[in-house]
Amino acid sequence: MAGVPYTFATASTTIPLSQLDTNFQTPITIGATNMNLGQVVTTISSLTLTNVTISSGNVTITNAIITGGTISNTTLTNVTLANATISSVFNPLTIAQGGTNVSSITANAVIIGNGTSSIQTVSPGTAGNVLTSNGTNWVSQAGGAVTNIANGTSNVAILSTNGNVTSYVNGVLQSTLSSSGLALTNSLKFNDSTTQTTAFTTTPVINTINSQAATPLIFGINGTEAFRVDSSQNVRIGTTSTIAGEKLSVYQSAATWAMFIQNNANNSGLGITNGSGTGTYTALAFYNNGTSFSACGTISISGSSTSYLTSSDYRLKENIAPMTGALAQLQALKPITYKWKTDGSDGQGFIAHELAEVCPQAVHGKKDAIDDKGNPIYQGIDTSKLVATLTAAIQELNAKVEAQAEQIKALIG
C-alpha cells in the first residue's frame, strides 16, 4: 500500500504510510488548524465550519462558529450557531444563550420564568385546577380547597373542581359564582357616585341591578326568598304572586305587623293622593276573610274632605230590629275628664273597661292584657259605636217628653 488518499483544494495525492502510525494519530496541519485524526476521538478547535453535517460519533466542538448544516449526537460548549439544525443535545443551552437550561419539559406544563437560572414549569394537576398566585409563586390549585393564598395581596379568581368560580382578597373568600347564582360573603356596594341622567336601557349603567330577561329579580336571605320584582315591575314581599292586582304586595305569616311606618322628623308618615282631579276616590280599603275580600270599611277622599266609612249595607245584615233600652244604657255610661300621662294634656271620654260593660261593641281589647314579654296591650274605644245608642236614647227621651206634654195639656185642660 503506497499511501492514504487525501484531497486539499484542487490537489489530489496520497499521504505516505510512513507518515502515519497504525492508529492514525499522527498530528497533521490544515492551514492554521491543527487536527488529530484517530479512530475514537476527533478534536477540532478554533475552526469555522459552513454547511457541515455531523451525524454520528462522539464529537466535542468548543469555541467554534457553525453556520448551516445539521448537528446531532454532539456536545456543544461556547458555540455560536446560525441556521443550524440541532437534535439530541446532551448539555442544554443556558437561558443567557437562548436555551432553557433543562433537558426536558413536562408534557402540557406551563413554563414559568425564573431570572437567568433554569426555567420552571407548573404541571396541570387535577382536572379543574387553575393557575393561581400564592403571593410568591404560581401554583396549580384546586378552587374548592384554597388554603395557600393567604399571603396574596390581590384579588384571585379560582375555578373549583365542581365548576364554581370563587374570588378571594388576601386569602379571604369574597364571592362564589355557581350555576345557582352569585353568593357574596359581604354586602354588595356601589361606590361610584356618578349620577345617571340617561334613560334606563338594556345597556348596563352604574349603580343598577338589572334583570335583562322578562323574569323576576329575586332577593333572598339564608336560602329563602325575601322579596321579588316581577316582570311587570310589581314588588312582592313575602309572596310570589299578586293578591288583587296591586303594585306592592306585602304578606306576613307571623303574628306581627306586616308594615310599620316611623317618621323621626315628626312629620307626615304616609301621604296618599290620586292621579289628578278633585273627584271622590277610595284612599284606603279594609277587608276581612282573606282573599275573599269581605268589605269592612274605607277611607274616602273628596275634593275637600275625608270620610271614614264602615260597612253598613243592609245586604250585610240580618235580624234587623229597633233598638230599645237605649236611655237606660245612656244613664249607665260614666263620662269622665282626665289628663294624659304622656304629655299632661286634658281629655274627656270614658274608661275602656267601664264602657265595655255598657256597650261592648265600642271597646277593643281586654282589661289588664299583656303580651308574652309582659308589655301591656292597651284597650281602645270607638265612640262612633255610641252614636246609635245616643240616637235611640234621645228618641226615647223625646217620646217621654212628648207624652208628658200631652199629660200636662190634659191637666191644664
What characteristics describe this protein?
413 residues, mainly beta, 5 domains, 4-stranded antiparallel sheet
Please give a structural write-up:
A hairpin with a 4-residue loop joins strand 25 and strand 26. The chain has helices spanning 326-332, 352-358, 387-412, and strands spanning 3-8, 11-16, 28-30, 33-35, 43-45, 48-54, 59-62, 65-72, 74-77, 80-82, 85-87, 110-112, 120-122, 130-133, 138-141, 156-159, 165-169, 172-178, 181-184, 217-221, 224-229, 235-237, 248-250, 281-288, 294-301, 306-310, 336-339, 346-349, 363-364, 380-381. The protein is mostly beta strands and 413 residues long. Strands 6, 8, 10 and 11 form a 4-stranded parallel beta sheet that branches. A 4-stranded antiparallel beta sheet has the order 16-17-18-19, with no helix packed on it. It has a 4-stranded mixed beta sheet with strand order 20-21-22-23, with no helix packed on it. The chain is built from 3 helices and 30 strands.
A few lines on this structure:
The protein has 413 residues and is mainly beta. The protein has five domains: 3-97, no CATH class; 124-184, no CATH class; 222-255, no CATH class; 277-320, no CATH class; 326-412, Winged helix-like DNA-binding domain superfamily/Winged helix DNA-binding domain (Arc Repressor Mutant, subunit A, Orthogonal Bundle), CATH 1.10.10. Helix content is 10%, strand content 32%.
